[in-house]
Design a protein that fits this description.
With about 350 residues, this protein is mainly α. It is built from 15 helices and two strands.
């Protein structure tokens, strides 16, 4: 299997990555053609798994039955744009010269240098890396919901009323850059190799792709405390409910629910609820295409980052001039016309 993988990457490097880097006149020392090829192969694998494994699960046991899937089409475009754009790895490689500032001049230091025992156990080391990334992601995700200017961007992801297997990558591109920069920085501080970083990102993204699947799939009362499943994450996408304020602020974990359990943000045993947002301005994203959604998120961000309320943690809606308005209840969005129903 290892030989087959290396052969595929070698072919992609020779026929795709090297010509692409040459056409873009990228210096050889800036990005390795082999590493770029490996990331592209990984991206294609991810898209194939979504299309041919996760998507059929939605037809098998749908959590919601949709009579019209038009709202999901833009999410497929996001997936192709983000996954094939390999943004996290690109930023990681671009920031690699900073490695010496944090870990010393040699590749492979960082966490390896701090805990020499892990150097002899690469699978354990990979698991430790993943655990650290997952912990960072949990707190980053909570910040995306708590800080109004960041929510102005991240709310685009939550505006989707038909959460499904393509929804994971529906987000503001600026939000994606912020996420990628944080994760790339963590990788550099830890001393993660580029190939390892690509696999870490793939592992995280596949878990998230699966957790967004529109399917009634749970891992039971024991294993749903071990790994995030679609039932668990679907509650994270629920619309806010004025009758139960704060209920929607739950289930932030990417892969391991332990963080939600330890920090008391985990929600279990709740029936599936409608997904989306209760703020009409954010819900209006559903009437836009990809470009329109990006512009709307940037307008919200600019309105929030310039105002004092944009820096005060808490749930907000967006009012005149896109300024954040603290939510002391929930706004109602217009009647949904997408045919979704629980």
């Amino acid at each position: 299997m290892g030989d087959a993988w290396r052969s595929i990457v070698d072919v992609a490097s020779a026929r795709v990555a090297q010509p692409l880097l040459a056409a873009l006149q990228v210096p050889a020392e800036a990005i390795s053609a082999h590493e770029l090829a490996e990331s592209l192969v990984i991206a294609l694998l991810q898209v194939a798994l979504i299309a041919f494994v996760f998507r059929p699960l939605e037809s098998w046991r749908p959590a919601e039955r949709w009579t019209d899937r038009r709202l999901t089409r833009v999410d497929r475009n996001y997936t192709l744009l983000v996954v094939l754009g390999v943004l996290p790895l690109t930023l990681f490689l671009a920031m690699t010269p900073l490695r010496g500032v944090f870990t010393g001049p040699k590749t492979g230091e960082g966490l390896l240098h701090s805990i020499p025992y892990l150097a002899q156990h690469p699978y354990l080391l990979f698991g430790v890396y993943y655990l650290v990334f997952d912990f960072v992601y949990y707190w980053m995700h909570r910040a995306q919901h708590a800080i109004p200017w960041w929510w102005a961007l991240h709310s685009l992801h939550h505006s989707q009323r038909q959460v499904g297997c393509w929804t994971n990558h529906r987000d503001s591109l600026l939000d994606g850059v912020l996420e990628s920069a944080i994760l790339a920085s963590v990788g550099i501080v830890l001393g993660v190799e580029p190939a390892e970083f690509a696999l870490l990102m793939l592992a995280g993204e596949l878990v998230q792709d699966f957790s967004h699947v529109n399917a009634r799939i749970g891992f039971g009362p024991v294993f749903d405390k071990v790994i995030v499943d679609p039932v668990f994450h679907r509650l994270h996408h629920m619309r806010a409910d004025a009758a139960r304020p704060g209920l929607h602020n739950c289930n932030f974990s990417q892969a391991f629910p332990i963080w939600d359990i330890v920090f008391r943000t985990g929600l279990y045993g709740e029936a599936a609820r409608p997904t989306g947002v209760s703020d009409p301005m954010v819900d209006a994203d559903n009437a836009q295409g990809l470009v329109g959604q990006q512009l709307a998120a940037l307008r919200r961000f600019w309105g929030a980052v310039r105002s004092r309320s944009g820096w005060q943690p808490g749930d907000v809606s967006f009012g005149p001039g896109y300024a954040p308005v603290p939510d002391r209840g929930c706004r109602d969005i217009p009647t949904r016309r997408d045919g979704a129903g629980l």
